[in-house]
Design a protein that fits this description.
Length: 162
Amino acid sequence: MNIYDINVKDIDGKEISMSKYKGKTLLIVNVASNCGFTPQYEGLQELYETYKDKDFMVLGFPSNEFSNQEPGDEEEIKSFCSLTYNVKFDMFSKVEVNGENESLLFKYLKEQESGLFGSEKIKWNFTKFLINKDGKVINRYAPITKPLSLKKDIEKLLTTFE
């Protein structure tokens, strides 16, 4: 199995295949609207704007798993992201990133790149996974890692394939 074999639901509930993103560099993030890290939406949007013409995408997956920080439904999340942070990158339906009902995508991502001390479990919102154009998980970043600090890693992947 690879990342392109996985189906996900977009923020409007439409099922899509991750193969839609084949050939693109991806930054996949579990996000939340009421988190101390929520202002990272701004940096994520800036990364998207900076690199979208070079086949780069940010994919946001809301999760309510951590301290009920994403209590709204998809329509509320979409509205919040658009109005507060002018988010234009692809957003998806709420998912669980750990446990019995975890999303297949996040199960796959965690298996490919473990976190601190080898733990697969996602500890908080705004954990980030960087994926190259071949669908390989290159790195996992902690929630405290600011999106703009990933520029060098992203640029390296974008130029590797040109």
